[in-house]
Amino acid sequence: MPSVMVEIEVYCSCGEGLCRQTKSGETRGRVQPFFEVSPCEKCLEKAREEGQDAGYEEGQDAGYKEGQSAGYKEGGDFATKESCNL
Fold first, then answer.
1. Is 19 helix (H, G, I), strand (E, B) or coil?
2. How many independent structural domains does the chain possess?
3. HEC string of 42-55?
4. Which run of H or E residues covers position 11?
5. First to last CA, the chain
6. What average pLDDT values come out for the chain (86 residues) when binned by 10 residues?
7. Are the C-beta atoms of 56 and 63 separated by less than 8 Å?
């Protein structure tokens, strides 16, 4: 089978070049060419930030609700008869 040399350039959907994040090689056995592309660092960082922000807000809301309901159970709400010992 003849060998063909091809030059390629790989870009992320955001437009960032992925030249240092792309590896090429040949598979074992069938010896077929392949490309392995790692995520774009800009998009990866953006996804981390979005995930951390969403996780923080979700955790904050859950913690607030849990603390609020625990406070009611322990008599922390002074608007109830139980907390005023009436």
1. helix
2. 1
3. HHHHHHHHHHHHHH
4. none
5. 93
6. 80 86 87 86 86 75 74 54 50
7. no
Q: Distance between CA 49 and CA 55 in Å, rounded?
A: 10
**Residue 24 maps to a domain:** yes
Please report whether residue 84 resides in a domain: no
Q: Provide the residue range defining the domain that includes 53.
A: 19-73
- Residue 69: inside a domain: yes
Task: Evaluate whether residue 83 is within a structural domain.
Answer: no
Strand partners, 26: 33
Whole-structure pTM value: 0.45
Distance CA 36, CA 25 (A): 8
Q: Which residue has the tokens 């392995």?
A: 36
How far apart are alpha carbons 22 and 33 in whole angstroms? 13
